[in-house]
């Protein structure tokens, strides 16, 4: 198993064209949010902006749209259309979609998530309640025409049918291979597993990140890199390292006790800066 390091991320991170425009760097959307869970889609969408996406949208239920729209400083929120066909049409115009942050467990949620997994051909990040909605129909991952990246914590992984008795790394590898997906199994030393047997272990992060909302930031980061054209394993590997690096910088300054998911967003620029990308980009 290979470790994800600074050099790994420098090598895998998508380069930014100096003559690029907002259409060059990906159009992505977060589908999530529910009453009582308005922060999750905001964190995910704002993280996608922070990671370089050109256009970021957040599709949320109409009842929480005013709250989410007011909190999104850089992403563009819109209320869910009245019918599934209209939603699908909007999401099909995106380069990647994230399903799940704060989505809730409403009666029609599972049906909508499964339909989107079936009908979307673009890369999809499946997180949080998106994972919960798919758990009872896990074979749909093998049937998708597009790439799926899952970002579960251990509890969600078990709900998906994962077995941790053999250890985190073997379990992640077996799941990714069986269902033809990329899995980022969150926790200390996050494991990224690909369907072809690629297995990576993250080297950044700390216990201050063990707070509700941190995973939403990671989902948005992964979404952003997929939308910019990174391969699914590359996107997941870069996202988990940068996520953890931002968390380490937060903890150094704010302590693991006091740091918040919102702080992760604020420290993402420093995490990118620590890679020395300015000179690297000029060389490329």
Q: What overall geometry do the principal axes of the alpha carbons give?
A: globular
N→C terminal distance: 29 Å
| Mean pLDDT level | 96
Q: In DSSP terms, counting alpha (H) and pi (I) runs of 4 or more, how many helices?
A: 13
Largest sheet, order of strands side by side? 1-10-9-8-7-6-5-2-3-4
Q: Tell me about the largest β-sheet.
A: 10 strands, mixed
- Content of β-strand: 5-15%
Helix content: 40-55%
Order of helices and strands: EHEHEHEHEHEHHEHHEEEHHHH
Radius of gyration equals 17 Å
Classification by helices and strands:
alpha/beta
Oligomer: single chain
Low-confidence stretches: none
Characterization of the model:
The protein is α/β, with parallel strands linked by helices and 284 residues long. Helices cover 48% and strands 14% of the residues. It contains 13 helices and ten strands. Strand 2 (27-31), helix 2 (39-50) and strand 3 form a beta-alpha-beta unit. Helix 2 packs parallel to helix 12, helix 10 packs antiparallel against helix 11 (232-258) and helix 11 packs across helix 12 (261-273). The two termini are 29 Å apart.
Write the layout of secondary structure elements.
Elements: E1 2-4, H1 6-12, E2 27-31, H2 39-50, E3 55-60, H3 65-71, E4 76-79, H4 84-92, E5 96-99, H5 109-119, E6 124-126, H6 129-134, H7 140-143, E7 148-150, H8 154-159, H9 168-179, E8 182-185, E9 191-193, E10 199-202, H10 214-227, H11 232-258, H12 261-273, H13 277-283
Parallel strand pairs: 1-10, 2-3, 2-5, 3-4, 5-6, 6-7, 7-8
Antiparallel strand pairs: 8-9, 9-10
Helix pairs in contact: 1-11, 2-10, 2-12, 10-11, 11-12
């Amino acid at each position: 198993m290979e470790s994800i390091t600074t050099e790994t991320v420098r090598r895998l991170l998508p380069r930014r064209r100096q003559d690029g425009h907002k259409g060059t760097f990906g159009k992505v959307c977060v589908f999530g949010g529910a009453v009582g869970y308005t922060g999750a889609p905001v964190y995910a969408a704002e993280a996608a902006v922070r990671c370089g996406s050109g256009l970021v949208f957040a599709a949320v239920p109409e009842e929480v749209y005013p709250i989410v729209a007011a909190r999104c400083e850089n992403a563009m929120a819109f209320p869910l259309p009245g019918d599934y066909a209209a939603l699908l049409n909007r999401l099909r115009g995106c380069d990647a979609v994230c399903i799940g942050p704060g989505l809730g467990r409403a009666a029609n949620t599972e049906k909508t998530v499964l339909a989107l997994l079936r009908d979307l051909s673009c890369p999809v990040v499946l997180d949080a309640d998106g994972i919960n909605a798919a758990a009872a129909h896990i074979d749909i991952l093998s049937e998708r025409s597009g790439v799926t990246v899952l970002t579960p914590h251990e509890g969600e992984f078990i709900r998906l049918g994962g077995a941790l008795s053999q250890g985190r790394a073997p379990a992640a590898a077996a799941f990714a291979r069986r269902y033809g997906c990329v899995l980022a199994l969150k926790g200390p030393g996050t494991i990224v597993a690909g369907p072809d047997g690629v297995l990576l272990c993250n080297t950044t992060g700390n216990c201050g990140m063990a707070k509700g909302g941190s995973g939403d930031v990671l989902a948005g980061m992964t979404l952003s890199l997929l939308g910019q054209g990174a391969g699914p394993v590359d996107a997941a590997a870069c996202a988990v390292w940068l996520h953890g690096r931002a968390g380490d910088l937060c903890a150094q300054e704010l302590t693991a006790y006091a740091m918040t998911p919102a702080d992760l967003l604020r420290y993402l620029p420093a995490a990118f800066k620590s890679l020395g990308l300015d000179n690297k980009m000029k060389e490329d």
